[in-house]
């Protein structure tokens, strides 16, 4: 009798152990599945959050803004912070050392366009010229000041590498102004003469300076964009009489050295 009771008790304990093992096996996959689902959800949420940060990120494009405090001439201004700024890619008649034809008109037009106004400044390659003047393209709202001065005949295109981003635009604007006799093209004889076709000798490129003195020294025919090197431009300047006969206006700062931006 005692043996039967022991066997019965042992059977119960064995059944309890088996049930416990069975329950444990069934429960572990469920817990693991729940844990895996939570990990997946967390990973997905992390991805969404990260993706949201990238998509929502705004890249700020900082634009230079300034107020024009003074207009020196048709292509040079002074900003409210005291810095002098020279317009890139254009040239207007000089008002210093003898007022050139249409210089006053170009200066007044520049005042009309920018004086006292907020301007947006765009840099090309160079920060400043050798005189420390800022070199910039200038905008008032949607008006491109450099271009409009050329297009309306208050300035000519003047390309000085490496700042050539809009050189073709300025050349096309000048062509339109010249063909329609706008501004200085209708008033200044030297500008009309300077618009004549470039002599064939110049079209030979770098060899032109070494061929002979066959240059046109009587009318304004060349600008710095017509030469490949500074020495070539200097040769023409000297051949035509230097400072005493700078008919081509190559020495804009009157220091005897022309087209200083050329290599």
UniProtKB/TrEMBL annotation:
Residue span, TNase-like domain: 62-187
Keywords: Endonuclease, Hydrolase, Membrane, Nuclease, Transmembrane, Transmembrane helix
Pfam families for the chain: SNase
Keyword check for Transferase: no
One Gene Ontology MF term: endonuclease activity
Bilayer-crossing regions: 6-24
SUPFAM superfamilies according to UniProt: Staphylococcal nuclease (SSF50199)
Residue ranges the record marks as coiled coil: none
This protein's record includes keyword tRNA processing: no
Protein name: TNase-like domain-containing protein
Organism: Candidatus Woesebacteria bacterium RIFCSPHIGHO2_01_FULL_38_9
């Amino acid at each position: 009798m005692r043996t039967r009771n022991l066997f019965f008790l042992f059977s119960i304990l064995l059944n309890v152990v088996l049930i416990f093992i069975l329950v444990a096996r069934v429960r572990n996959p469920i817990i693991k599945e729940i844990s895996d689902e939570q990990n997946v959800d967390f990973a997905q949420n992390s991805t969404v959050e990260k993706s949201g940060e990238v998509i929502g990120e705004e890249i700020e494009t900082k634009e230079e803004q300034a107020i024009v405090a003074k207009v020196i001439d048709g292509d040079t201004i002074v900003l409210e912070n005291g810095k002098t700024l020279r317009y890139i890619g254009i040239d207007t008649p000089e008002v210093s050392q003898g007022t050139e034809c249409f210089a006053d008109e170009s200066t007044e037009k520049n005042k009309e366009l920018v004086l006292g106004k907020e301007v947006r400044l765009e840099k090309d390659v160079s920060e400043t010229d050798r005189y420390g003047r800022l070199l910039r393209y200038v905008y008032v709202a949607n008006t491109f000041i450099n271009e409009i001065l050329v297009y309306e005949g208050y300035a000519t295109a003047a390309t000085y590498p490496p700042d050539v981003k809009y050189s073709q635009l300025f050349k096309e604007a000048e062509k339109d102004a010249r063909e329609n006799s706008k501004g200085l093209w209708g008033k200044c004889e030297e500008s009309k003469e300077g618009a004549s076709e470039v002599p064939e000798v110049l079209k030979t490129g770098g060899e032109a300076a070494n061929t002979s003195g066959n240059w046109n020294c009587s009318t304004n025919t060349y600008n710095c964009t017509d030469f490949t090197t500074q020495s070539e431009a200097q040769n023409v300047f000297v051949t035509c009489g230097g400072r005493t006969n700078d008919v081509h206006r190559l020495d804009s700062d009157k220091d005897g050295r022309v087209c200083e931006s050329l290599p």
